[in-house]
Amino acid sequence: MFSNLRFLRRVATAALAAAIAGGAALASPLQDQGWLTSWMASQQPVWQPDALPLPAGVPSVMTDQTVRQVVRLSVGGQRLRVVLSNPYGRQPVVIGAAQLARHAGGGRIDLAGSRAVTFGGKATVTLPAGQSVASDAIALDTPALAELALSLYLPQRTAIESFHWDGRQTAWLTAGNATAQAMLAAPQVFSARVLLSEVQVEAPAGAGAVVAIGDSITEGNGSTPDANRRWPDFLAQRLASDGVAVLNAGISGGRLLRDGMGVSALARLDRDVLSQAHVRTVIAAIGINDIAWPGSTFAPHDPVPQAAELIEGYRRLIARAHARGVRVIGATITPFAGALRDTPIRGYDSPGKEAVRLAVNDWIRHGGAFDAVVDFDAAVRDPARPQALQPAFDSGDHLHPGDAGYRAMAARFDLSLPALGGQSRSGAPGGNSGR
Length: 435
Known about the structure:
One of its GO terms (molecular function) is hydrolase activity, acting on ester bonds. By secondary structure, this protein is α+β, with helices and mostly antiparallel strands.
């Protein structure tokens, strides 16, 4: 049924290999010390309709159309720039015009707070296949936690081959060049993100970024769309006054060891985390799909991994981050008893998978490998039935927390940790403070 998942993996792996050969996508030269990424969306290859039991939910082609997308910054700034990316594209993409503006709600923008975006002084730019481009600096004084809208005009037939699947944010698509219009006429709507991968601010003194690499629970599935209630959003609110950017590198269906609805966390660690300028810390909140996908509708023929396999994967991630001077916070895996049982997905949970989760969580808490640990499991589990989410925190599918659950997860972070910019402990990478 899902033989094309292997095709998806081959496409993703080949695209990354091509990017490395071309010196492009993994360690982007766009990410220099003068800029701090304040918002990001990790990129995935768009899958074929029969490759996964989930629709891609994005138009396959856009022609002579404007797409408007909303982001919420973590850190603010007086000058910004946007980064457009097409890492899995096989053809160049022509941007005919672009406009960055303050978001005015729904599909509207504030024309008084709107600026034309240029690239090398020009209104148009060609985004090469497999690469990224950064705009010129945009003078638009923007506070922390502000929402912005980027409008891109695509004058030519543009195949959408790179995207971020579950943006939890409405995007609008309309005919013609409407980049400077306050409201788009008769737009189509979807929730994926296309071409836009980062919004950066001019780096303030002492700039720092924390990157959360994870799966749909980090991406925010189950939270209220258009409301910025993912756990990294709540953490960004807690850290806003400290000038620490919180970047969400979650991908729904993401796994630590193997490709899923995107390449594995180990494969994208350099691109999404370690190449970021000013990155201080990575929060590793991943592993649930490594345990639960095997034997399910997603990967019916894969064996459930042993805890030791995941632990070795975490050790590899930690070693690579430490080699770059980046601290690592390990997040325990949240409960998933009964997950997706009322959906077409079958076999996601089992007693054997629960045993692996418990063993991995025990190692995360007590293995001493992480610089700090955040106990998401303890934050959202049901005290009466710890293999399941607490009902008040359950979005309804018994896998993803809802808004209240994500808020509780963000509240588990000790903001005094050096890994989050706190000053209460010294602790170089390799320590085990903050549990």
